[in-house]
Every structure is written in C-alpha cells, then in structure tokens.
Amino acid sequence: TALPAPAPTFDPHALPPLREVIARFGLDAKKSMGQNFLLDLNLTGRIARSAGSMTGITAIEVGPGPGGLTRALLATNAPRVIAIERDRRFIDALQDVVEASHGRLTIVEADALTVDPEQLAPAPRAIVANLPYNVATPLLLGWLARIEAYVSLTLMFQKEVADRLVAKPGSKAYGRLSVITQWRADARVLFNLPPRAFTPPPKVESTVVQLVPRANPEPAEWRILEKVTAAAFGQRRKMLRQSLKSLGDAEALLEQVGISPTSRAEEVDVAGFAALARAVQAREAANPPCP
Ligand code: SAM
C-alpha cells in the first residue's frame, strides 16, 4: 500500500517578519477582538509542536491574526491547515502565507462562535489556537460538546481559566467548568507564558492546555449536568442538601447516589456529579413535566 505523501516542508522564517507584516497592513491590536499576538516564531513553533504528531491530521486554527502560529502549523506534518478569522484586516495580510503553503492553508473569514469546524475540516482533525480570551470559554464549551470529533484541542487560555479547566476536587479553582471539561476530556497543562510573550502584553499570565477526548466518559446528559453543577456551585459554600433544593428532594437524590447530604460541591468529583445527573434524569423520565 502507498504511504501518504509527506507534507511539503514549509519554512516559517522565509516570509517577512511578523512585525513587518503588522506595519505594512496597519494591524494594530484591537482589544474588543481579544488580540494579543505572538510574534516570536520560536514560541509559536513550540506551541505547534506541543500539539503532538499532526501526521494525517487537519489542523484547525481559530484567530490566526498576523499568522505566527499559522506558519508554525504549516511547519508541522499537518496535511492541511484551516484558519478561522473574524477580523477582515488579517485576511489580506495572510495571503502571502496562503501562497507559500502550496494549497495546504485555507483561511475562512467567519466568527468562530457560529461556525462548525466539523463542516470545514475532514476528520481526523485537531484544534490548535491562541484563543481570543473574551470568547475562549464559550468556544471551548462548544467544542467540548462534540469533543469526540477531535483528536485533541491544544489551546492558549488566560491562566486563571486554565487553572479551572484542570482543577481537582477540594481546590478553590474547582467548579462547573472543571466538572464539564473533565467529564468529556482529559485536560492537562502544557506550559505557561508570561504577559511579555505577547504584543501587546495582556494583563494576565497565559497557559497552554491540551484536551483529549476521554475514552469512556460517565454517561450523563449535558443539559442536566449543567443544571446540577449550576445549582451546586451557585452556592458553593452551602451543603448540597441545601444548594440542590431547587432540584427537589435533594436529600433523597444525594442518598440515592451515595453522596453525603452534608458535603459541599467542592468535594464531589466528576463521577459523583455524573451520577447525580443520571438520578435527576431518571426522576424526570418518571415524572415528565406538565406540557
Ligand atoms: N494566532 C494569533 C497569534 O497567536 O498571534 C492571534 C491570536 S489573538 C489572541 C486572537 C485572534 O482571534 C485575533 O486574530 C482575533 O482577531 C481573532 N478572533 C477574535 N474573535 C474571534 C472570533 N469570534 N472568531 C474568529 N476569530 C476571532
């Protein structure tokens, strides 16, 4: 059988420096679009390589901006790179990269919140992105809901969000986002970056996190798990028998799944929340709400 053709080699340094591209196209950073650029190609190379082997995998990038990470992704074995950018100014600036990619790079002008990457890129696919922080969490939640469609997500977040994604029970950062994320994915921190790595520097530290779909997530319905975690962490200092009152007969529910009614949300692991969600679902199925 024929081996797949290797991806053509791409030299990120062969194109004009990113600072030059920014000056030539007048690409001053817009705060409203979460624009903090990575202009050091060694750094973008590090991020792209941290995604793991891209052989045979379509890379999806959200927010290519001036294209530092895009170039680095083209230097991996990814046969194709699909970059979704909302700010029209970058589309022209990226044309040089498109040309140098020999057909491997496609730029899609769109709001990543409204596009379905599965429609744009064939499987196997992986997302690698330095996310706009103002929409990072809604973007992640959208991808998590269909995480099985991806080999991995390698994403830059502000550190405080990254801490929540990987937080374990008993820690301050552990909350709804931790439970929903770790229910669907194995999430791990790859490395941190200081504000000065970016132009302009954001106010906060940043962290690259990798998320890989979990092989056997506990059965639960997304909508119900959201409802249960919202109730539990909405009053995180209270005992669960109190905070889950809105779900109706919280004590019975908790006893049914073997969680102490006097414990607090922070002490319950992902498996515990999934069991609670299944119990709520079973109850809803037995007593459907009036039409
Ligand atoms: N990848 C570039 C880098 O590392 O230098 C830029 C990263 S910057 C943090 C975020 C990028 O996402 C910007 O290019 C911005 O225009 C783009 N962006 C912001 N909101 C977006 C959205 N809703 N959909 C697609 N791209 C978006």
Provide an overview of this structure:
It is a single chain. The protein has helices at residues 18-25, 41-50, 68-74, 89-93, 95-100, 117-120, 136-144, 159-166, 176-184, 222-234, 240-243, 250-256, 270-286; strands at 58-62, 81-85, 105-109, 125-130, 152-158, 185-193, 206-213. With 291 residues, the chain is an alpha/beta fold. Strands 3-2-1-4-5-7-6 form a seven-stranded mixed sheet. α3 links the parallel β1 (58-62) and β2 (81-85).
Compose a concise summary of this entry.
The chain is built from 13 helices and seven strands. The protein is of the alpha/beta class.
What are the key terms here?
single chain; 13 helices; binds S-adenosylmethionine; Ribosomal RNA small subunit methyltransferase A
Question: What is the 3D shape?
Answer: elongated
How many alpha or pi helices? 13
Query: How large a portion of the residues is in β-strands, by DSSP E?
Result: 15-25%
Query: Ions, cofactors, ligands: which are bound?
Result: S-adenosylmethionine
Radius of gyration: 22 Å
Question: How many E-type strands?
Answer: 7
Percentage of residues assigned to helices: 25-40%
Pfam family, one: RrnaAD
Organism: Azospirillum cavernae
Family: Belongs to the class I-like SAM-binding methyltransferase superfamily. rRNA adenine N(6)-methyltransferase family. RsmA subfamily.
Enzyme class: transferase
